[in-house]
Design a protein that fits this description.
Length: 404
């Protein structure tokens, strides 16, 4: 849900390592383990357009935060509704103290223009769960026209083990439900839930909102039997909202959404299963090669400045700049990247991992950002380990064929 960095949204498939449209880059042999020497990688000059803001037959909606208010600019919620959106979920709070200054205005205007209104809380598991639930509930209870369930946005572990995270989440959800009288919804993404939550099945009694930036609706994780809401893009364009915005679809039509908003949480289902949406940027490709490149960069095996310069000239803030920032601040999540290299995860998962790493680092500072501080030797070992991964080797082969 974050829109802090969003520098990777236009990067697709294995060409994401270059991040420059319409150029030919030559990567040294050591850039990515397993690649032949001086491999030319051609980056496509055409960039896919932003995805359509709605999907026929489904209730579509947006989620927003202060990032949709550049220089204090208001959202024109009447235009959002006219553009086909049926619901809006607004960031309310983060941690135990931060509050979105635009919450009350956005909730009131979205509701006044006929949208179902919800809010969410960005979890900081390094802080007390009950204090955060109380902070969020205070904001939630001030929004008089709240119709959608309150949402826990769980995307970072902050050093907590899966068992500790599960305990933290139970405490938060129980306290929030007690204070709001509503069954909460849980927002997450596939990599985080499988790796950081050990694919826990303990929370399937709550509705699931899953982020996956790909054309095919994602399969549920953990013990869920369905995805209630799908965040399908972080780079949508909707009338009335400045810049990019997250696009979501509800697993149902407008009537089902109304029932869901009225508390009938079983009303969702039957619309997302097997759905493919053709238009827009596809970040559903395997991330293994790109992760290997990041680990190689962290190990000093590839120089970033040339890629950064080319990306800036093309007006794209790309992968090298993001990773370089995280490395320089000792905030690159190396352990998580190793997990991702050894699993079946997408470029969308990678975008969300790095986005959250940068957000937490920016909020907490480099000293206590809650992400791995790994030396170059460790990063080099991680890159070598990634190169032994069969999926990685297969992807390297595909990249080699593309470049020949």
């Amino acid at each position: 849900m974050l829109v802090v960095m969003r520098k990777l949204r236009l990067l697709t498939a294995v060409t994401a390592t270059a991040a420059v449209a319409g150029t030919l880059l030559v990567l040294p042999a050591t850039a990515i383990p397993g690649l032949p020497a001086d491999l030319p990688v051609e980056v496509p000059g055409d960039i896919a357009p932003a995805p359509a803001s709605t999907v026929p037959g489904l209730a579509s909606g947006v989620d927003v935060s202060r990032w949709q208010h550049p220089d204090g600019q208001a959202i024109a919620w009447d235009q959002v509704r006219t553009d086909g959106q049926s619901f809006a979920v607004i960031k309310a709070s983060e941690g135990a103290s931060w509050t979105n200054d635009h919450l009350a205005e956005d909730a009131a205007q979205a509701g006044a223009n006929g949208l179902q209104v919800g809010t969410y809380h960005y979890a900081r598991p390094g802080e007390d769960p009950r204090a955060q639930a109380q902070h969020y509930a205070a904001q939630y209870n001030q929004v008089g026209n709240h119709t959608l369930p309150p949402v826990l946005d769980l995307e970072v572990a902050e050093g907590q083990s899966p068992e500790q995270l599960a305990g933290w989440t139970h405490e938060f959800m129980n306290e929030l439900e007690s204070l709001t009288g509503r069954t909460p919804m849980l927002y997450t993404y596939r990599y985080f839930w499988i790796e950081q939550m050990a694919n826990s099945t303990e929370f399937a009694n709550y509705p699931l909102w899953l982020a996956a930036y790909q054309p095919t609706a994602p399969q549920p994780v953990g013990g869920w039997d369905k995805v209630d809401m799908w965040q399908r893009s972080d780079s949508g364009r909707v009338a009335g909202i400045a810049g990019n915005v997250d696009l979501n679809v509800f697993n149902g039509d407008e009537n089902q959404l109304n029932m869901f908003s009225a508390g009938q949480l079983e009303a969702s289902g039957g619309k997302l299963e097997g759905l493919t949406v053709e238009e827009g940027v596809d970040l559903g490709a395997d991330a293994t090669v790109v992760v290997g490149a990041i680990l190689a960069l962290a190990a000093g095996l590839i120089a970033a400045p040339a890629l950064v310069d080319a990306a800036e000239q093309a007006n794209l803030d790309g992968l090298p700049a993001v990773v370089t920032d995280l490395i320089e601040q000792n905030n690159l999540p190396v352990e998580q990247l190793e997990e991702m290299a050894n699993g079946n995860y997408t470029l969308g998962d990678l975008v969300m991992l790095l986005d959250n790493a940068e957000h937490v680092a920016g909020e907490a500072g480099a000293a206590d950002a809650g992400v791995a501080d790994a030396g170059l030797a460790e990063a080099g070992a991680a890159a070598a380990e990634a190169a032994e991964n069969p999926e990685y080797q297969q992807a390297v082969g595909a990249l080699t064929e593309t470049a020949q």
